[in-house]
Amino acid sequence: MEDLELVERASWLELYRRKSDGSYWRLTAAEKYEQRFLIRIENVQGWSSFDSAPLERQLLLERRGGLGKEACITQGCGQPVVLGSAFCLEHTYERGVRK
Q1: Cα(60)–Cα(83) distance, rounded to whole angstroms?
Q2: What is the pLDDT of residue 60?
Q3: 17 by DSSP, 3-state: which?
Q4: Does residue 43 share a domain with residue 58?
Q5: CA distances from 14 to 24, 43, 52, 63, 95 (A)
Q6: How many CA atoms lie within 13 A of 65 on its CB side?
Q7: Kind and range of the H or E element at 6?
Q8: Burial class (CB in 10 A: 0-12, 13-18, 19+), 82
Q9: Residue 93 DSSP SS3
Q10: Residue range(s) defining the domain that contains residue 22
């Protein structure tokens, strides 16, 4: 974090600039029991509205080791579960699971 300087805050997000190369990074603010995500931002305009959910879902899936063979227990879903979960990726993420 020594190479990062805080540029701006918006809601639960913080925008940092990396001193060594001038790149911008968005970090979710620290909250109890919450996973923080650091994401490189290519376009600073609209940095706080960048939708990182697809990246967070992909990371969740990778951390859990992929998908299982069983179907999600959410009524009417039928998608394969995330390993270690009874729910598919979408429903696992909706329940606030991030790792």
Answers
A1: 10
A2: 93
A3: strand
A4: no
A5: 10, 15, 14, 24, 24
A6: 5
A7: strand 4-10
A8: buried
A9: helix
A10: 4-49
> Side chain identity at 94, as an amino acid letter?
E
pTM of the model: 0.75
C-alpha–C-alpha distance, residues 81 and 74, integer Å? 10
User: How many angstroms separate the CA atoms of 51 and 80, rounded?
Assistant: 24
Question: Residue 31: CB partners within 8 Å, gap ≥ 6?
Answer: 12
For the beta carbon of residue 30, count every other beta carbon within 10 angstroms: 9
Structure tokens at 26: 């968005």
The pair of three-digit structure tokens given for residue 1, joined into one six-digit string: 């974090």
Q: Are residues 43 and 59 in the same domain?
A: no
Question: Is residue 29's pLDDT more than 70?
Answer: yes
Q: How many residues does the chain have?
A: 99
Q: Are residues 62 and 32 in the same domain?
A: no
User: 58-94: per-residue pLDDT in tens?
Assistant: 999 999 999 999 999 999 999 999 998 999 999 999 9
